[in-house]
Design a protein that fits this description.
The protein is α+β, with helices and mostly antiparallel strands. It has one domain (5-73). The chain is 26% helix and 23% strand. It is built from two helices and six strands. The strands form two sheets. A three-stranded antiparallel beta sheet has the order 1-5-6, with helices on one face. Strands 3-2-4 form a three-stranded antiparallel beta sheet, with helices on one face. The longest helix has 13 residues, at 5-17. It is elongated.
Length: 81
C-alpha cells in the first residue's frame, strides 16, 4: 500500500490533536533492503524522521501500526483506526 508524505503528516497531525498533550508518533515501516532489494518491515517502531534518515525517502509507514507515546509517560495510545 503506497503512502505519500502528505498521508503520514495528515494522520500524525490528526492523531496528535486527538491526544490532549504532546505525543511522539511511532510507526513500523516498510523499506527496501539495499543488499537484496526485497521489501522489509522494521522490527521496531520509529518516528518519521528516524525512518527517513535510516531507510531513505522511499520508506512507507505500515498502516494501522501508529503508536502515540506521551512525553514523560509510559502510557501508550494504540492506533485510533
Amino acid at each position: 500500500m503506497a503512502s505519500s508524505n502528505w498521508d503520514v503528516a495528515h494522520l500524525v497531525s490528526f492523531a496528535v490533536r486527538s491526544v490532549s498533550c504532546m505525543a511522539t508518533a511511532l510507526w513500523f515501516w516498510y523499506y527496501r533492503d539495499p543488499v537484496t532489494g526485497r521489501r522489509r518491515k522494521t522490527r521496531y517502531r520509529c518516528s518519521e524522521e528516524v525512518a527517513r534518515e535510516r531507510y531513505g525517502a522511499t520508506a512507507e509507514p505500515v498502516s494501522h501500526s501508529l503508536e502515540l507515546r506521551r512525553e514523560g509517560s509510559t502510557e501508550v495510545q494504540p492506533d485510533p483506526a
